[in-house]
Amino acid sequence: MNLRRMQRADERAADSAWPYAKRGGDGDAAEWARWQELREDIAEVWAACGAYEWIAFTYLGISSVLILLFAENLAHPFRLLGVRLILVALVLALCTVAARAKARAAAGGRSFGPRWWHFWRHWYPHLFFLFCFEELAHLMKLVNPNWQDTKLIAFDYWFTGVHPALWLEQFATPGRNDFLQFAYLTYFTYLLILGGVLYCRRDFRAYWSVMAYSMAGYSIGYLIAIFFPIESPWFSMVGMWKAPLNGGPFTVAINFIEHFGRVRGAAFPSEHVAGSVAVLWGAWKHRRWLFWAMAPVVVLMCVATIWGRYHYVADVLGGMVTGTLGYFIGSWVMRRKGAVVRVVAPISQREFQGERVGPIVARSYSQFGSEEVRLEQRP
């Protein structure tokens, strides 16, 4: 790094504080320095966030405004908001710590710490998705206190001429049921598989693109579910079945998951389908061979959502639309400047390896699937 450029940066910082020192003495200069330091800290935290965080925080912001507007419809609205604030703080802290670790690793060589934070920086979105979905259980009566299932039951009958979940019961056998429950379970692997391939190949732009598609698709679905609460056939048509769907180990596994993780509501649009379609779009764009491998399984999973009485046909169609919208919105966001974190860690006029070096910017450059990091003096 150019020492003269660093010195000039420090001189500019001192010059910016001079008018305040001249008018009000050292107190005003110190206050201005603290303000500048705060601005640098905020800039550092925000620079460590990318397209995924932009979309995630937008969803949290919109839904938090709704929580405030319709707080009287919730038992504990401020508890929900408090948990969200903690979640945002954790995400910002993770992004910032990972960015600083990466900058220090670039200067001082590899160690376990940067790799640890790099891993969690890339894989925490899966836990974020889970939080948002489970939270919907508390938001189903936020805007509309009445379930709207009768509308989708009528649509399904108009669209197919039957009640699909009831009509499919005539084909149920333990073997078929277990096979389709297995197909339903495969949903949980799609993003892990595509994300894992991209992560291992160090194609981080493609990786964060897929995460952005998924977050955009899910966010649209979450907001629709808040305004248009749907229980699902499992609840609205209970008592109409001739018998429960019995099967083998996959049926037992899905019953266990549904018992402890089922959300009453949030059925329209199907988030399973939305997430799967967003991943398919990502595979089509970034790993075409994986698209062809996953597409038949995704189709079976969509059938399984109706077979297992989890969704209406309308839910599946809605999920296809929102997943596709997520792909196009996510693609647009990924074209914005800073969508992939390049300014990794401004170290705001503090010590860096024992020396006061002024504001440091670490930019990562990805080429041919590999990653190189260099440190630059901020102009």
Q: Would you give an account of this structure?
A:
By secondary structure, this protein is mostly helical. The chain has one domain. The protein contains 15 helices and four strands. It has helices at residues 3-24, 26-47, 51-69, 77-108, 112-135, 149-160, 164-167, 174-185, 187-200, 204-227, 233-236, 249-261, 271-286, 288-307, 313-334; strands at residues 351-352, 355-356, 360-367, 370-377. It is globular.
Topology summary:
Elements lengths: L2 H22 L1 H22 L3 H19 L7 H32 L3 H24 L13 H12 L3 H4 L6 H12 L1 H14 L3 H24 L5 H4 L12 H13 L9 H16 L1 H20 L5 H22 L16 E2 L2 E2 L3 E8 L2 E8 L2
Short description:
The chain is mainly α and 379 residues long. 69% of the residues lie in helices and 5% in strands. The protein has one domain.
Kindly state the number of beta strands: 4
Radius of gyration: 25 Å
Number of helices: 15
Largest sheet: 2 strands, antiparallel
Mean pLDDT: 83
Helix-strand category: mainly alpha
Order of helices and strands: HHHHHHHHHHHHHHHEEEE
- How many separate domains? 1
The low-confidence runs, each spanning 5 or more residues with pLDDT under 50, are 1-9, 343-379
N- to C-terminal separation?
Answer: 12 Å
